[in-house]
């Protein structure tokens, strides 16, 4: 009986490992299984996630604190800096949680496996360095300039996510191919830098040397100017002096831009897409192997129970034992119900390995959301009403009305654009909003009548539409309660929290936002939007690594350039001359004063800010460090990471585009995809020999065969 319970618990844990794509190489005795399930319980994982969030958020209150309403250094008040020991105490509590975390993980996998796990070894080293730095910080009474442990904090986020670790491994495997293109890009920059220094060399006529003075005075300046041109941040500024002197100089800049931007950068995108997709496919293939291995391990331990006949040459699992396991397994209810249904309809009492594996293929299927049925009315009149208001044409009519509402708002806004608030008459806008909101409320009620409340709310578009309609109705009632009904000259004075104009603007913004209801009715637009939503839901690993990159570079920048920019007072340049800039904001304004094209500023926003910061930091003798720092940031964020995101976006979109051509449209069923299911059609199933070989290598599980 004790053995049977142990086998049942082992099977439960192995199936849960398979569901979550976890490794099964952990201890499988009774106490360890209890500890394992406790560690991966929702409460324990929630505490761990909260601890990681807290230690990452400490940076906002640590010195230099970011707890100010405005970021303008001229107007913001002195930020609150916590006393020494406050944030350090919170840090210590977080470190204690992490020590418990790494201790439990190390115990569960065993010490032999621990030394093979590089992430766990790095986890312990990070904790040791962080605790050492924490002790040093307290010994200096929190006055030390550099805190190494702050830069190490993102590691706690990385090591807690298996998908983020797989993504990092895929990126690391892609680096050699990316390095070849980056090397070609460096050669391109070097050659054109030499050409530029020869082409724009200093001449006897100082009036004709504006290009040399501004951009190509020496090798570092020339290289920086062309690197910034590669980002298009200083385009066309960098070529204007030379172009003013001779139009033929434009050929040099055109060749540089065409070869760099149109060929090399796009070639880098193509290589990253091709290579990274291959490595991500391998990662997903290994996840599939883990799932199949977990299911097979559950089958092997269940075949050892007393409920299974021992005289058969082939292993079998009794249906009763599997039902007992499924009662305790934490998994999606729809999946569990589908497996239980298949078991109960099965005519046999014993399951072979193939049948057992096939049952759990439900885990690989699309998540299906089926909408509740519409109500059945007995009245002939109500049936006619249901047909009329449940018809798609009624939804199309609502879209036309919403479009008419948007057009009317645009007309009123254009007419009142140049009027003073005292000259504005809100009667017309208030009246048309009142009429349209009445229609929206009526439309919502008629749809609920036709579809039923449960079916109505089961559609995300209806929930979105209905929520905005209710908010609009509440705002309209509040407006009438405070200001009365619309009438000519309707512009009363400020009353309550919001003025009449603020209330009307809020209503209009919600109406414009409500117009997004047309997206589900436009197939191509709906495909694009669902692709973006899937990226948001399923590619959290990319967002997590992006947070790590931002966090690390932000803290590194704070440590490197602390005191480099004096926010108030004068700044000294290289010749100890005072630069008459009273604040960073004034420098920004002066720098962008010549660039009146706001669209160009928006287009080059990221690169422009980097270019400006390079200029500002070069004032204070740290230009070389600034260049290295910002070039590294540009390479990692703009060149590598943006291209990785484009690669996954393309893969997700192409996959959805191909599937919509082969799947029949079912109005009552919605399919939801995960990143593993994106590659499901091209994954290879592991063979039985591969699974059994891996199981026999399990460090803590002894199989009977």
TrEMBL record:
Spell out the reaction equation it catalyses. Answer: Ca(2+)(in) = Ca(2+)(out); Na(+)(in) = Na(+)(out)
Q: Where is the Ion transport domain?
A: 50-276, 395-653
Topology in the lipid bilayer: Multi-pass membrane protein
Key words, A-Z: Calcium, Calcium channel, Calcium transport, Endosome, Glycoprotein, Ion channel, Ion transport, Lysosome, Membrane, Repeat, Transmembrane, Transmembrane helix, Transport, Voltage-gated channel
Membrane-spanning segments: 39-61, 82-100, 120-143, 179-201, 248-273, 393-415, 427-446, 467-486, 506-529, 541-564, 609-627, 633-654
- Kindly list the biological process annotations in GO that this record carries: calcium-mediated signaling; endocytosis involved in viral entry into host cell
* Single GO term (MF): intracellularly phosphatidylinositol-3,5-bisphosphate-gated monatomic cation channel activity
Instruction: Supply the Pfam families for this chain.
Output: Ion_trans
| Superkingdom assignment | Eukaryota
Location (main, coarse): membrane
**Any Gene Ontology CC annotation:** monoatomic ion channel complex
Where is it located?
Answer: Late endosome membrane; Lysosome membrane
The entry's family comment says: Belongs to the calcium channel alpha-1 subunit (TC 1.A.1.11) family. Two pore calcium channel subfamily.
Q: Which PANTHER family would you find in this protein's record?
A: TWO PORE CALCIUM CHANNEL PROTEIN 2 (PTHR46768), TWO PORE CHANNEL PROTEIN 2 (PTHR46768:SF1)
Question: What is the protein's name according to its record?
Answer: Two pore channel protein 2
Q: What is the native source organism of this protein?
A: Ciconia maguari
């Amino acid at each position: 009986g004790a053995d049977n319970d142990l086998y049942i618990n082992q099977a439960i844990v192995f199936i849960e490992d398979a569901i979550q794509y976890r490794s099964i190489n952990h201890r499988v005795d009774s106490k360890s299984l209890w500890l394992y399930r406790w560690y991966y319980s929702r409460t324990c994982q929630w505490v761990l996630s909260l601890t990681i969030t807290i230690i990452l958020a400490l940076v906002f209150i640590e010195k230099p604190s970011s707890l100010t309403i405005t970021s303008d250094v001229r107007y913001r008040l002195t930020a609150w800096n916590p006393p020494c020991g406050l944030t350090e105490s919170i840090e210590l509590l977080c470190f204690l949680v992490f020590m418990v975390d790494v201790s439990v993980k190390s115990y569960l996998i065993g010490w032999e496996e621990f030394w093979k796990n590089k992430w766990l070894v790095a986890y312990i080293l990070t904790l040791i360095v962080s605790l050492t730095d924490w002790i040093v910080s307290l010994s200096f009474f929190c006055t030390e300039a550099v805190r190494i442990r702050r830069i190490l904090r993102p590691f706690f986020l990385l090591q807690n996510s298996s998908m983020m670790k797989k993504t990092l491994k895929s990126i690391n495997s892609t680096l050699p191919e990316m390095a070849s293109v980056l090397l070609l890009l460096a050669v391109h920059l070097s050659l054109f830098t030499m050409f530029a220094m020869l082409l724009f060399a200093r001449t006897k006529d100082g009036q004709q040397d504006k290009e040399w003075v501004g951009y190509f005075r020496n090798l570092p300046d020339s290289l920086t100017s062309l690197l910034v041109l590669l980002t298009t941040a200083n385009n066309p500024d960098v070529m204007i002096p030379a172009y003013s002197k001779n139009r033929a100089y434009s050929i040099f800049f055109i060749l540089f831009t065409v070869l760099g931007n149109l060929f090399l950068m796009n070639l880098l995108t193509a290589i990253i897409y091709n290579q990274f997709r291959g490595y991500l496919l391998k990662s997903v293939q290994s996840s599939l192997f883990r799932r199949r291995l977990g299911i097979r391990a559950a089958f092997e331990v269940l075949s050892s129970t007393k409920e299974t006949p021992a005289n058969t040459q082939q292993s079998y699992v009794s249906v009763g034992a599997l039902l007992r396991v499924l009662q305790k397994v934490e998994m999606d209810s729809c999946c569990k119900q589908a497996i239980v249904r298949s078991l109960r309809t099965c005519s046999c009492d014993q399951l072979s390995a193939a049948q057992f594996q096939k049952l759990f293929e439900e885990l690989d299927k699309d998540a299906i959301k089926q909408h509740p049925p519409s109500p059945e009315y007995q009245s002939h009149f109500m049936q006619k009403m249901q047909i009329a208001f449940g018809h798609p044409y009624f939804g199309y009519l609502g879209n036309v009305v919403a479009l008419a509402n948007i057009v009317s708002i645009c007309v009123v806004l254009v007419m009142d654009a140049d009027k003073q608030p005292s000259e504005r008459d809100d009667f017309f806008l208030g009246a048309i909003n009142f009429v349209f909101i009445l229609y929206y409320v009526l439309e919502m009620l008629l749809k609920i009548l036709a579809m039923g409340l449960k079916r109505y709310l089961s559609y995300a578009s209806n929930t979105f539409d209905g929520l905005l309609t209710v908010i609009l109705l509440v705002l309209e009632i509040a407006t009438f309660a405070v200001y009365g009904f619309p009438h000519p000259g309707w512009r009363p004075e400020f009353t309550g929290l919001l003025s009449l104009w603020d209330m009307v603007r809020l209503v209009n913004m919600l109406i414009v936002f409500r117009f997004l209801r047309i997206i589900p009715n436009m197939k191509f637009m709906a495909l694009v939007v669902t692709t973006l939503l899937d990226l948001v839901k399923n590619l959290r690993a990319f967002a997590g690594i992006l947070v790590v990159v931002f966090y690390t570079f932000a803290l590194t920048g704070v440590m490197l350039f602390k005191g480099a920019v004096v926010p108030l007072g004068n700044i000294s340049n290289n010749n100890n001359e005072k630069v008459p800039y009273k604040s960073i904001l004034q420098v920004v304004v002066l720098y962008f004063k010549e660039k009146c094209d706001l669209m160009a500023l928006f287009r080059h926003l990221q690169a422009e800010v980097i270019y400006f910061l390079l200029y500002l930091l070069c004032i204070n003798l740290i230009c070389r460090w600034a260049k290295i720092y910002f070039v590294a940031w540009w390479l990692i964020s703009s060149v590598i990471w943006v291209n990785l995101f484009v690669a996954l976006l393309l893969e997700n979109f192409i996959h959805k585009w191909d599937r919509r051509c082969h799947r029949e449209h079912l109005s009552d069923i919605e399919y939801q995809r995960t990143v593993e299911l994106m590659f499901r059609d091209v994954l290879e199933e592991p063979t039985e020999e591969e699974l059994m070989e891996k199981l026999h290598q399990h460090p803590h599980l002894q199989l009977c065969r």
